[in-house]
Write a structure and sequence with these properties.
Elements (H helix, E strand, L loop, with lengths): L13 H17 L1 H10 L4 H9 L18 H14 L1 H20 L2 H12 L5 E4 L15 E5 L2 E12 L6 E7 L9 E7 L5 E3 L13 E12 L3 E2 L5 H37 L1 E2 L2 E2 L4 H30 L4 H27 L10 H9 L8 H13 L7
Length: 392
């Protein structure tokens, strides 16, 4: 897949445009038709999962050397954006697979990379990310899950909460305290498998949106894992978790852009077809201004997201700022645009017969997960005050 280093700054490369077209065609045919049913039944989108796997879009970020598609950060963003345009729940398949496996890709041993990234690329199981806990949400450093060394193994015990695709995924990156006296420097990362003895799951959360992506607690009851399943060096887990989020917040921005675009698309078609007072409601200037603002905001969010994706691919010094900014801005836009799309449809928009109410419910989570937008503003402010921002 294409490399953003050679892509023109003013437009997507032909390869990136081809990826967008391929994913859109697939989603229109095999994802969008099931989106309402997946939401209504609050079930995993098996149809989308199978279609994405068959097309190698389920985890496009996995490097070619481990059997993956080798998509760069921008190509991965395009995949997630287009899937989210059709079904946000389904977009969590490639998004969570990147979130869960990126720590292995960034810091894992070569053996871990070959084994787990290879398995992910082959479709042998998804990859989830276990950071949050009942008492450690935004304050991730307050986690209580412990990992204790026992001979050649580590024994993990604790509870992780808000874990996307828990129970569906076969593999889990788990952050645990290995030295409680060192605070963030006493946290380490491990790969845990669903089949490991002592791993179990809570009941699926009953959520406002993204109902097709199961969110469950993960229980670790003295789970024994071999020492070579530690990701990176002991005590580097928290830093690795934050590095991971710098990259994957860009994928949440992509989700937000996708659902906003989906809502805008539907609102535009409805406005052109809906007749009131003897003419199309799209002829009324008040509605035109609303649609114009929606389109303007979506495009601004898209360009910020693509700019952040470029920084993710290059590993630029200002990625932390751009990742937080793109996620925060795009998710705020997604919430506003989906609310406005409901308004365009009026009473119809408030019913489940039309997709915009689902899009509005789905959009809300993008302002919350992978760091609330209040946390993103803290991150951005610290970066600005430290003088780390693009000097353009």
């Amino acid at each position: 897949m294409p490399d953003t280093h050679t892509s023109p700054l003013f437009a997507l490369s032909e390869e990136h445009q081809a990826i967008r077209s391929a994913v859109r065609e697939l989603c229109d045919a095999k994802v969008a038709p099931y989106a309402a049913l997946v939401d209504e039944e609050a079930r995993y989108p098996h149809e989308a999962a199978a279609a994405l796997l068959a097309a190698d879009f389920h985890a496009p970020h996995v490097p070619e050397e481990y059997g993956g598609a080798g998509a760069d950060a921008l190509a991965t963003v395009l995949v997630i954006e287009e899937v989210a345009r059709a079904c946000v729940s389904s977009s969590l398949i490639p998004a969570v697979n990147k979130l869960g496996s990126l720590p292995v890709q960034l810091a894992g041993s070569e053996e871990l990379k070959k084994h787990y990234l290879g398995a992910l690329a082959r479709g042998e199981g998804g990859f989830s990310y276990c950071l949050s806990e009942p008492e450690a949400g935004s304050d991730a450093a307050a986690m209580r899950t412990r990992a204790v060394r026992d001979g050649e193994d580590w024994v993990l015990h604790g509870t992780k909460r808000w874990i996307s695709n828990a129970g569906e995924s076969e593999f889990y990156t788990v952050l645990a305290v290995t030295d409680p006296d060192k605070r963030t420097r006493g946290i380490s990362a491990f790969v845990v498998e669903k089949s490991d003895a002592g791993v179990s799951f809570g009941a699926p959360e009953k959520k406002l949106g993204i109902k097709g992506s199961p969110t469950r607690e993960v229980y670790l009851d003295n789970v024994r894992v071999p020492a070579d399943r530690m990701i990176g060096e002991e005590g580097t887990g928290f830093e690795l978790a934050m590095r991971t989020l710098d990259h994957t917040r860009v994928t949440i921005a992509a989700q937000a852009v996708g659902v906003a675009q989906g809502a805008l698309d539907y609102a535009l078609e409805y406005a052109k077809e809906r007749q009131q007072f003897g003419k199309s409601i799209s002829d009324f200037q008040g509605l035109q201004f609303l649609l114009a603002d929606m389109g303007m905001k979506v495009e601004a969010a898209r360009q910020m997201t693509y700019a952040a994706a470029g920084r993710s691919e290059r590993g630029d010094a200002d990625l932390t700022f751009f990742g937080a900014a793109a996620k925060c801005f795009a998710s705020d836009v997604a919430m506003q645009v989906t609310v406005d799309a409901v308004q365009v449809l009026g009473g119809y928009g408030y019913t489940k017969d039309y997709p915009v109410e689902r899009m509005m419910r789905d959009a809300k989570i993008t302002q919350i997960y992978e760091g609330t937008n209040q946390v993103q503003r803290i991150v951005m402010a610290r970066q600005l005050l430290a003088g780390i921002q693009s000097q353009v």
